[in-house]
Design a protein that fits this description.
Length: 113
């Protein structure tokens, strides 16, 4: 008889825990990412439209999270020159479909030293 009670009480405790877990929920939001190369292409496209010359852009090796308002630093170089400039690209997802974005790019006035 005591075995049945133990199993029953264990089952009741397990059921109560399960209900407690169901009552608690966790959520995680994962931002879409884009490869560093794809992000560099977007930066180069934006700068080419603005100034008429397509620069070489290096945004590192890590995937870039596409989060509205985030800023990403990339190195910018005009082809044929060995001078690197830092740039800050601000990501905008406003008015875009999921995973799509635009960038606004500001390049430093002085080369990296």
């Amino acid at each position: 008889m005591s075995t049945v009670r133990t199993v029953t009480s264990t089952a009741l405790v397990a059921a109560a825990l399960a209900l407690g877990v169901v009552g608690c929920s966790a959520s995680a939001s994962v931002s879409p990412t884009v490869s560093a190369d794809a992000f560099a292409t977007a930066v180069a496209d934006a700068l080419e439209q603005e100034v008429g010359t397509r620069p070489d852009v290096d945004c590192g090796d890590e995937a870039v999270p596409v989060v509205d308002g985030d800023e990403v630093h990339c190195d910018v170089n005009t082809p044929g020159y060995d001078v690197l400039y830092d740039s800050v690209s601000t990501i905008s997802t406003e008015g875009q479909d999921d995973g799509e974005y635009t960038v606004s790019v500001v390049v430093d006035d002085e080369p990296k030293g």
